[in-house]
């Protein structure tokens, strides 16, 4: 039965008809204790939904829809390792990557939790060898720079986490520089190589498939750069001293030339965009040290246990997901802004763009039918205080309804004796609260606003969520990302789509390969559409 043919869905549609006339400012006038009614907490992690266009009836109907869709059973399937990724016939067990060692999860008669932890130990060995200076380059000098080469799920997560948790850097990592290279055009690598010392640089080639052309092209450029700057050393020495391969496809890594001794593995039951908890997280472990990385895993595991066991009425991922379903499928809001009020979280929008849009950007349900209801919205974002001077004009006075996630840490710089920074944090908090207040309540917050000219009016009624951490640290960051992962899964269950595959990214790769020939030296007369042919001819003319 299509997702939008159910009793609860119909009830929500009639409720939406009634609610579509309401304004959040009216809801606050009618329910003065909205904050206590619509705020939910889990271990110092606060989710405030009171600035959403919801009432208790809305939440009750949304929870009924989740129950009707068998959400609890689907959660069980996810954690038990059922093949929830049906188009690739695989489990999706990112939760296993952060499960404590004393647990058991049997997959094909093997306890994969043992494997997860032996892998973490292997990663720990490498982290310690690099931190202690035992990992030496071809000149015998210790490594002082690590460059992670990867794209998508093999880049966005580790990149985001290393930025978010830079202040939690391990003492043993203080002298280690960590860089990330992902873009296929070589621009990031070219710029970086010009300032790196080949003798002290270690490349981590991160790729689940180890077939991604972006990553292999960057890896090849890095290898040639090393060979040119170390004519004495053999290729074998160079690779064994300056390359680590992280992949779920060890044969391909060997084929590229990286020996098993320099490989870290993970499994095909880990989705790329869910993989930073695995050995793909090596850069994070190098930044935080293994104890920091384990704290990160523990935070996510804590959210896993909450998601698995808490009643839907107080289950943070379920409530966040269903508030989204309400906005998207019943209030017809298809734009979602991610607004971290913390410069450390500057990369979380890019990460969530992949997590959400590559997971739920689907229009075919699990039965293979085209859906006739909305799924994943357009998601984008920026550090909130910067975005205030960029696209907030549209959020406040544009014609688009946009749901907004404000993400902020209540405490910061409290352990620094720096009153200026502490003041800047207060400024940041004040702006975070002010912006969500106006976006939701409009200029009803202002005396006499109604007499202002139209171009100075603020209509508000933009649904806002505030996620407040006590502090940003490896544990709370693990909680935060796991919250969004599970939110995405819940929405996929309501929409009856598979969130763990990404067939939509394949055709572009194929067409690009065939176009490469047309651009290459042996170029044949392009035989594509007239626009593509024309552009190829222009490129080749310019190239001559
Ligand atoms: O880790 P890799 O196999 O290199 O894949 C890197 C990325 O590329 C693919 O095309 C998908 O879009 C992503 O889901 C994936 O994370």
UniProtKB/TrEMBL annotation:
Active site: 358, 389, 509
SUPFAM superfamilies, sorted: SIS domain (SSF53697)
Xref: InterPro entries: G6P_Isomerase, G6P_Isomerase_C, Phosphoglucose_isomerase_CS, SIS_dom_sf, SIS_PGI_1, SIS_PGI_2
GO biological process: gluconeogenesis; glucose 6-phosphate metabolic process; glycolytic process
EC number(s) given by UniProt: 5.3.1.9
Cell compartment(s), UniProt: Cytoplasm
GO molecular function terms attached to this record: carbohydrate derivative binding; glucose-6-phosphate isomerase activity; monosaccharide binding
Metabolic or biological pathway, per its Swiss-Prot or TrEMBL entry: Carbohydrate biosynthesis; gluconeogenesis; Carbohydrate degradation; glycolysis; D-glyceraldehyde 3-phosphate and glycerone phosphate from D-glucose: step 2/4
Top EC class of this enzyme: isomerase
UniProt keyword annotations, A-Z: Cytoplasm, Gluconeogenesis, Glycolysis, Isomerase
Catalysed reactions listed for this entry: alpha-D-glucose 6-phosphate = beta-D-fructose 6-phosphate
Keyword field contains Cytoplasm: yes
Pfam family, one: PGI
CDD domains from the UniProt entry: SIS_PGI_1, SIS_PGI_2
CC annotations in GO: cytosol
Keyword Thylakoid: no
Main location: cytoplasm
Biological function: Catalyzes the reversible isomerization of glucose-6-phosphate to fructose-6-phosphate.
Family: Belongs to the GPI family.
Name listed for the protein in its UniProt record: Glucose-6-phosphate isomerase
Natural source organism: Neptuniibacter caesariensis
UniProt gene name: pgi
């Amino acid at each position: 039965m299509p997702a939008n043919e159910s009793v609860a869905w119909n009830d929500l549609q009639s409720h939406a008809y009634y609610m579509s006339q309401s304004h959040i400012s009216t809801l606050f006038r009618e329910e003065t204790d909205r904050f206590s009614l619509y705020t939910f907490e889990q271990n110092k992690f606060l989710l405030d939904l009171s600035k959403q266009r919801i009432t208790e009836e809305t939440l009750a109907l949304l929870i009924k829809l989740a129950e009707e869709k068998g959400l609890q059973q689907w959660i069980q399937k996810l954690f038990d390792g059922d093949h929830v990724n049906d188009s690739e016939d695989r489990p999706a067990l990112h939760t296993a990557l952060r499960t404590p060692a004393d647990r058991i999860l049997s997959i094909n008669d093997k306890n994969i939790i043992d494997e997860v932890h032996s892998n973490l130990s292997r990663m720990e060995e490498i982290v310690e060898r690099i931190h202690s200076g035992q990992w030496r380059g071809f000149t015998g000098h210790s490594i002082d720079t690590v460059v992670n080469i990867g794209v998508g799920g093999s880049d966005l997560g580790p990149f985001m986490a290393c930025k978010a948790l830079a202040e939690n850097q391990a003492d043993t990592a203080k002298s280690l520089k960590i860089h990330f290279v992902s873009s296929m055009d070589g621009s990031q690598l070219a710029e970086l190589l010009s300032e790196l010392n080949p003798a002290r640089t270690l490349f981590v080639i991160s790729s689940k498939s180890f077939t991604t052309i972006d990553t292999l092209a960057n890896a090849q450029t890095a290898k040639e750069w090393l060979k040119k700057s170390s004519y004495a050393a053999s290729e074998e020495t160079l690779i064994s001293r300056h390359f680590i391969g992280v992949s779920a496809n060890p044969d391909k890594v060997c084929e590229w030339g990286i020996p098993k001794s320099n490989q870290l593995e993970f499994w095909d039951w880990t989705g790329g965009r869910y993989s930073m908890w695995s050995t793909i997280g090596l850069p994070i472990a190098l930044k935080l040290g293994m104890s920091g990385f384990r704290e990160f895993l523990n935070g996510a595991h804590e959210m896993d246990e909450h998601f698995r066991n808490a009643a839907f009425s107080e289950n943070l991922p379920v409530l966040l997901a269903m508030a989204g379903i309400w906005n998207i499928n019943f209030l017809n809001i298809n734009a979602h802004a991610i607004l971290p009020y913390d410069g450390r979280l500057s990369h979380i929008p890019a990460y969530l763009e992949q997590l959400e849009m590559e997971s739920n950007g689907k229009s075919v349900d699990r039965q293979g039918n085209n859906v006739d209801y909305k799924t994943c919205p357009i998601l984008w974002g920026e550090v909130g205080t910067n975005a205030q001077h960029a696209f907030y004009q549209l959020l406040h006075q544009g014609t688009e309804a946009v749901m907004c996630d404000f993400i902020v840490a209540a405490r910061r710089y409290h352990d620094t004796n720096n009153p200026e920074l502490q003041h800047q944090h207060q400024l940041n908090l004040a702006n975070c609260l002010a912006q969500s207040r106006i976006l939701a309540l409009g200029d009803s917050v202002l005396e006499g606003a109604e007499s202002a000219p139209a171009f100075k009016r603020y209509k508000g009624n933009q649904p806002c969520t505030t996620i407040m951490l006590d502090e940003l640290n490896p544990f709370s960051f693990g909680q935060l990302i796991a919250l969004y992962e599970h939110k995405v899964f819940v929405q996929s269950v309501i929409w009856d789509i598979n969130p763990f595959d990404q067939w939509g990214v394949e055709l572009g790769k194929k067409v690009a390969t065939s176009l490469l020939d047309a651009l290459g030296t042996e170029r044949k007369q392009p035989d594509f559409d007239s626009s593509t042919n024309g552009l190829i001819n222009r490129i080749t003319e310019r190239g001559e």
